[in-house]
Amino acid sequence: MEMKDLLKQGITEALNKAIAAGTLPAGDYPDVALEVPPQKEFGDFASNIAMQSVRVAHKAPRIIAQAIVDGMDYPWLDHAEIAGAGFINFFLKNDVIYDTLKQILAAGDAYGHAPLRQEDTIQVEYVSANPTGPLHVGHGRGAAYGSALVNLLRAAGYNVQAEYYINDAGNQMNNLAASVNARYLELLGKPAEIPENGYHGHDIIETAQAIIDQDGDKYLDMPEAERLELFKDRAYAEKLKALKRDLAHFNVHYDNWFSERTLHPDAIQAACKVLEERGKIYEKDGALWLKSTDYGDDKDRVVIRDNGVPTYLAADIAYHKNKYDRGFKKMINIWGADHHGYVARVKAAMAALGYDVDQLEVLLLQMVSLFRDGKPVKMSKRTGQAITLNELIEEVGTDAARYFFIMRSLDTQLDFDLDLAKSHSNENPVYYIQYAHARIYSIYRQAKEAGANLSMDWSDVKWDTLTNEYELELIKKMAAFPEEVQRAARERAPHRIAHFVHELAGMFHTFYNHCRIIQEDKDLEKARLALVTAVRITIANSLAILGVSAPEKM
């Protein structure tokens, strides 16, 4: 049992003893909450359970606290102190602290991971950018955050499916085809113009040139309508392949790629039929409207236009109906902040279909601003267009890009310092963390050269040789990792793991600067080798959640 769980169980047992003895009245007492005090002199853990129990016990907090402390006679508890208005500070014996090390070393890659709960299904849909061109840095934040959230939820024991919704139907695909067609004609010396809502990126020229390189001018004599359909399919296949390749290069992988095309027309018609049967859709001016104002939207929304063409909302209704019908307990959409107004109408549609809207959770990502030399960077030097995710990766690397995207809460604007992300200094958080991991492998190499036993068999370690504050604080920090994973998962907050591992790396560097590892006292040497191995495991497991590598050398 983990240190914190052991203490929570002990407090609950002590509370029940006090109730059984008549010291405290029976009642519905709150769950025990624990926190790590900001200063070590206040103990290993603190609880406000006494203050939270006043309404049930009808006694002063310090009296309740004393009743709990009196019942906590455990071999693993050194002592407990009542502080302030009724806080209880707990001081654990070192033996139970050492148990954390044993757990980490035994669990290895699984440390911090909860067992899979097959029934706790969550679908996470993220990025879902139109397959019409390369991903930009805004998509990069969504990709890093979304994939880290998937990793985090899986570590917390959820059964997660990651999905990409391919917007491969509608006007954007027609505009893609028209844009490629215009560039194709231009490259062959024919007059042409990019349509008003077309795509002007350099990648469109590359697509057109690739068609010419393969097939020459053979499509010039083809009727334009046929040529546009051909170019639409060619460009779509190329863009989707590039999109998948770029995401994989960024350590982003999906379990399912869902095509919007599969919703047209049957699934959309089926969704509209259900809405019609439930009286949630009506005809006006030749169009079909959803009664979204019945569910808190500011106005009703068109689902089918007067020309019979479905709106984007119609496809989204059919898509989300499909999600619900697949039976997920929870569905999480990660959208850009510019989709804020769209949340109400999608949830309104799900409510109109009779689904539980609380099962659908929409997280909104704020904007990313790039800075170089302290100045905003908006355009690519290479193309004059918005900076792509690939260009960012080329400049700072996948690891730095992912960490910087994840290290701030998704609901705050992110200022991305390109110079800092590239620097090999302690100010660069991802470098600082990875250096800690690599430093441990350096310790192994030094230990091997000194003739130390590196069998990784820790059964005979004399744990009680680890007694100084740097060692014990490291162990206590690592003990918090499993609960940090659970809390971060509940809060949908991968940045908590980024902060945790940065703090752990800092504590390790401090330990390293104060505690000699390779030394004449072989018992202490082996115990410290076991300690740094536990640190390595915890850092690596944290970075794995973030999708960041844990190098052995730097």
TrEMBL record:
Q: Which GO terms describe its cellular component?
A: cytoplasm
* Matches recorded under PANTHER family: ARGININE--TRNA LIGASE, CYTOPLASMIC (PTHR11956:SF5), ARGINYL-TRNA SYNTHETASE (PTHR11956)
Aminoacyl-tRNA synthetase among the record's keywords?
yes
Question: CDD domains, from UniProt?
Answer: Anticodon_Ia_Arg, ArgRS_core
**Which top-rank group of organisms is this from?**
Bacteria
Q: Which organism is it from?
A: Megasphaera elsdenii DSM 20460
Pfam families from the UniProt entry: Arg_tRNA_synt_N, DALR_1, tRNA-synt_1d
Keyword Nucleotide-binding among UniProt keywords: yes
Where do the Arginyl tRNA synthetase N-terminal domain residues begin and end? 5-92
Which GO terms of type biological process are on file?
A: arginyl-tRNA aminoacylation
Q: Where is this motif: 'HIGH' region?
A: 129-139
Q: Which catalytic reaction applies to this protein?
A: tRNA(Arg) + L-arginine + ATP = L-arginyl-tRNA(Arg) + AMP + diphosphate
Where in the numbering of this chain does the DALR anticodon binding domain appear?
A: 433-554
Query: Family, per the entry?
Result: Belongs to the class-I aminoacyl-tRNA synthetase family.
PROSITE patterns, alphabetized:
AA_TRNA_LIGASE_I
Which compartment or compartments is the protein found in? Cytoplasm
Keywords, comma-separated and alphabetical: Aminoacyl-tRNA synthetase, ATP-binding, Cytoplasm, Ligase, Nucleotide-binding, Protein biosynthesis
- Name of the protein in its database record: Arginine--tRNA ligase
- Predominant cellular place of this UniProt entry's protein: cytoplasm
The subunit structure is: Monomer.
Molecular-function annotations in GO: arginine-tRNA ligase activity; ATP binding
Q: InterPro entries of this UniProt entry? A: aa-tRNA-synth_I_CS, Arg-tRNA-ligase, Arg-tRNA-synth_N, Arg-tRNA-synth_N_sf, ArgRS_core, DALR_anticod-bd, Rossmann-like_a/b/a_fold, tRNAsynth_Ia_anticodon-bd
